[in-house]
Structures are given as structure tokens and as C-alpha cells.
Amino acid sequence: MAISVTEPLTLTPLPSIPLIQPGDNLGLIIQQAITRAGINPLDGDIIVIAQKIVSKSEGRLVNLATIQPSQRAFELAIITEKDPRIAELVLQESKEILRTRPKTVIVEHRLGFVCANAGIDHSNVKGEGDNIEEWVLLLPVDPDASAHKIRQELEGLFKVRLGVMIIDSHGRAWRMGTIGVAIGLSGLPGLVDLRGHPDLFGYMLQITQVGAADELAAAASLLMGQAAEATPVVHVRGFPYPLRESHLSELLRPREMDLFR
Description:
By secondary structure, the protein is of the alpha+beta class. It has two domains: 10-58 and 143-250, CATH 3.30.1330.100; 61-137, CofE-like fold (Alpha-Beta Complex). The protein contains six helices and twelve strands. The strands form four sheets. Strands 1-12-2-8-9 form a five-stranded mixed sheet. Strands 4-5-6 form a three-stranded antiparallel sheet. A two-stranded antiparallel ribbon has the order 3-7. Strand 5 and strand 6 form a beta hairpin. It is globular. The two termini are 33 Å apart. 37% of the residues are buried.
């Protein structure tokens, strides 16, 4: 599979995305933002969306006052110095607790990837009627399905073939710092397999598989920021690989190939 270099890769953050509330139609909101930005979507364009606004639109806000911690949650809270209610949500959102230390829990999330604190977020989260600190945000129930729904809406509105990706910020076992990664895909490849393709000198690649969705997620994350930037949607043009159907599962390393656990 040759990389297409016929046009530059261009990422454009979409302005004026409002604060998202449960039940909001993200497809329509993004369509309006694209129009305001003066962008005319073309076949092959990709829309990258921050997980947080997807979770908010899907009502994944949880008021900690409603959480009753289990005995196991109290035990985890002691080890990690966390609120027992947060510990309970971490347990509910996880397949397995992998590592613990004060303030951090590394888990295998119910969606299959390894992440810190089960992706539960305190920052930029506000619910109705109570103190802001009482509310947290969970990841979408099915990010692939969320991406597919938004893609269908946008393709229906613009009459073009698009890809849609939902991203979050994850740490990595072998490097410092968080980076944007894909947690939901529709209509674009997660993994690009270059095995069997020649390099510049005709050598056939043996093991090279490119995490193309994560590479794009990292680029979009630079524009979205991590704090108060309020730019949770990025339009992409010039992605160098053909669009195709895919799922998050192709990016997840099988347990038998995971050297860190």
C-alpha cells in the first residue's frame, strides 16, 4: 500500500463548538461548525472528535453522590489514595486492575485497551445543580458505534464519503507524557499493514504495521489541547491512506503479545 502524497495533510480545528449537553445532536453541531469554518467537505475527509464531547452528549456524566462504594472499592481507595466512589467507578468500567500506585490505577478497560483510571475524567466536567467536583465523566459505552452514528449523520448532510474518529489522551508504558489515541473508528483504517511492500531499496518490509489512526489522533490532539482550548473537533484533509471500514479492535495488542503484563 503506497502512501498518497498528492496533497498535503491539513488539520483545521473547528471554531465555536458550544458546551455540549446530554442529548445534543453532535452530527448537526459539527455540520454547523464545518459550515461556519467555510469548509466544503470532500470524499476522503476525516472528522476527529474529542471523547469528552461524545461522552457528554451521550449522558455519561455521573454524580458521585449517587455512588455507593463496595468493599473492594474501599480497599482500592486506600492503596491509591482515591475517593472510594471514584474507585468504585474504576472497578465498574474495568475488566482488570493491572497496576496501582498513589493517585493512579492502570486498568484494562472494558473496551479492551489499557489506560489510567479507566478513562474517568474530572476536568472540564460540570453537571446540573451540584458542586462541579461531584461530577465525573465516563468514556462512551461503544465509541465505534458513536463514531459510526456521527459519520452517518455527516455523510447524509454533506453527501460525501467521510471517516470519523473519536480520540482520548493516554499514557504509554515506555515513554513519558500523554498522547492522543483513537478509541473509536468509523470509515478509516486503524492499522495499515505494510508487510510485503518494498522500501526505497526494494527490500520487502517484514514487520511494519502503522498505527495510522493513532498517528492522526496525536496530530489532532495537538490542536485540541488538554485544558481550556475548547476546540474538540478537527477537520482533516489529505490523510495518506485509503479510507475503509475498521474497528478499534485492530489497534489493540493481543494479551499474548503484550510484554508489559
